[in-house]
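dude i think i finally got it to work??
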Amino acid sequence: MSEAANTGKEPWITEVDNEISGWDDETCEYDFATILKEFLLSDGESTEADTARKIYDYYNQEFLPTDPLMRFQYDKRMQPFLFAFWQAAYIGFARFIPYNNSNQDKLVRLISELQRLPPSQFKISGGTILWADDDSALERTSPYVEMSPTALKESGGGEGDMSFEEVCDTWVNFSSFLARVTEAGLIGDCYNYARFDISQGLDEDLPHGLMRDSKVMVAAQYILLAGKTLAKGCFDKDQWRRRAEKLKEISKEEGGSNTVLASATEEAHNYMVSLHPEIFLASED
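look at this
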């Protein structure tokens, strides 16, 4: 029996615990992981606003005081603070929370709530700002490319103790989280990652297997979770039609073997048709 079954935990919680158990408990990343875990498992007792304020207070009351000179630095050490937050959110949680689990939505709502904090300006190279004096733009720093199945396959297949199948699963989870962040308007170039990942899953002629299935599932999740945003101009009409048709084709192919993928691709196809019905009516003429 697995550890998750023995403890009554959902498997993803055990995976998160295993990940952060190897982190230095005197780092920001570890502190953020503790805050995020408490929030996600609170059953509503800790709200998004409460947790956003806790992160804000942590910066001012615990992080800055560790070094008195930090307050006089041009960025007040906001850049490493932000990086630590994203490391905890992405590496510690987003890739393990299942793509269809409501805790992904909860984490996105927390990030949205961070934008509502009292505005402050920090001078950071590259414009990476958490609390801004204009529109509170929230940009992200993440090891996006290094986490992809393609990159990990080329470098040896797995990541630490993970099998390649587990790597593919975490990629679907992580990409679904990015899709939610895209739909919520929390990424500056909201089309950047979606364009690449949808093209990887639906435009390339990939051999059947884990790599192909994970990339197709990622494409389907981008459509399902960020479709309204992507429909506004991410692709031209021909691309939209071709990719919807590809999803329909894959759904028929996988119907008798991979029912999860078949269902996701069928749903994604139907959603694309519903978002731009005029494209498909024109193709029938």
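The chain has 13 helices and no strands.
im so relieved honestly
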